[in-house]
Every structure is written in C-alpha cells, then in structure tokens.
Amino acid sequence: METQAHLQSCPVCKSRPHHWAVKKCGDDTYAVDRCSECGFAFVNPRPSMEFLKAHYRTSGHGVSLDPPTLESVIAGEAVDPNSTIDAKRMISTIKNLTKDRQNKSHRLLDVGAGYGFFSKEAAINDFQVIAIDLAENERQISKSISGIDPVPTTFEDLELDPSSLSVVLMSQILEHALDVEEWVCKAGQLLETGGVLAIALPNFGSLQRIILQKNDPYICPPDHLNFFTPGSLRNLLKNNGFVVEKIQHVSRIPRSTIQKRMPRMLSPLSRPLFYLVSMALRIVDFLGLGSIINVYATKV
Length: 300
Ligand SMILES: [Zn+2]
Known about the structure:
Layout: E1 18-25, E2 28-34, E3 41-43, H1 49-55, H2 70-79, H3 82-98, E4 107-111, H4 117-124, E5 128-132, H5 136-146, E6 165-171, H6 180-190, E7 191-202, H7 207-212, E8 226-227, H8 230-239, E9 242-250, H9 255-261, H10 270-286, E10 292-299
Parallel strand pairs: 4-5, 4-6, 6-7
Antiparallel strand pairs: 1-2, 2-3, 3-8, 7-10, 9-10
The structure holds zinc ion.
Zinc ion binds next to loops.
C-alpha cells in the first residue's frame, strides 16, 4: 500500500498517540495507533488519496473479484432487510430533529450512498437528495434502488455552496475517510445553522471489540482507517462547531448467519435462538456497548 507520512498527533484531540496493534488483512499488515486521551484509534501511517481513489473506483467494498449485483443486493435485503431498517431509523430521527425548520431548505447530502437505501428513504420523506459515491458498481445499483444518480466524486472534491444543506448523512463512511477532521469541518461549512450531521459507524468501544480486540471484523484496513468511540466522535464534532443531540446503539446478528451455522437437525431452533440473541443484544445496546453507533449532531 502506498502511504503518506506517519501522523505524530491524534487527528481528534492532537495528543500524542501510542502504538496499539498490527493487523494483517489479506497480504498486507497495518499498524494501528491509539490515543489514550480521547480513545480514538487509527491506521498509521495513512494510505495516500491516490491509493484510496483507485481502491474504491469499482466497488465500495474495495477491490473485489466478484462485486455485488442489483439482483444479489435485492435478494440479500429480502432475507435480512438491515439497510432498510437502518435507513428508516436514521431518516426518521433526522426528520424529528429538523421538523421545526419550516422555512429552511430540505436538501440532504448522502455521502457514500452505497446501494441507495438511505437516499431512497430520504426521498420518500420529501428531502431533496444529492448523493455521491466513488464506486461505479455502487452508483449503478443505487440509481436503480433510489432513482437518484450519485455524483462520482470524493467528499473532498465535492463543490457545493456554503450553508446550502439541511442534512449531511455519513452512513458507514467516516471510518473510511483519510482526514476525519477535514470531513467534519467541511460538513459544517455546507450545513445551514441548525442543520444536522448524521453519522453511522462501528463503535471501537463496543463489547464485541473489547472481547475480540484487534480481531474485531470492523478493524479491516485499508477499508476502515478510523476507529471511533462515542466519546472521541463527540470530541471531534464539538471541536468543529457541532452539538451532539442523540446517540443510538445498534447491534444485530443476521438471521441468515444463525441459520447457516445451525446443524440441519437443529434448524427448527434457529428462530427462537435468533430472538434470544436479539434480546441479549438489546441489553448490550442499552449499556452503551453496541457494535454500531448512530450519532446526530446539529451545527451551532
Ligand atoms: Zn485523541
């Protein structure tokens, strides 16, 4: 992997980070540093922007020999409709946070639109949606699913008027960004005062990560480069002119995963086991140890 210089300070709080782990992914190994002041962890040294642009050109899941098709995405969503559930929860929360802004615009930017489930739900809820995605495969699938044609650009290169948006949505994307401070600062410039920045990403402070440490599947460079706890994300948002309004924890195990791992003779038990595991995960979320966090912040 082509890399940039080694960062000497934490991108969130500027303290000096320490070495945390070495993670092997595919044929490459990556060093992960962690900041003991704010809890943020990050791949260090960073990849170059040229590397990331090439990495995501064809597929948002990195260079893949077998990228998903529209048919496989729709079939997967029919079995485990997780993207639809996530989109409905996030757009409904955003709508609640923006409901008193009658005279303001309802322009929503979907950064890294992926397969378009969030753009679709936003459009259903009367937002004027602008979507961006680097990956050609994702853009085609997203257009079919949401009816919105994403712009092929990085967030860094996107040109929009300042204060022209009421919502910036970053679902499962900030963990891929090269410069997290630049992204949050730019979101602040594009949003009107009172506008909402909504972020979904893996929780570095989750029970799963505490148990698995560097073997947590969300620690997967060069796709994921940034590992936030709720506290370190709150810090980054506060430092860039945002106030955090709400944090949701979301943990789940897909029903299809349980079904696949059950011996055939025990398959009638897969449904009650799924509900039992789901109940246990609700407790994990309640304790603030969920695998994914949804963070909603307003620009002050
Ligand atoms: Zn820090």
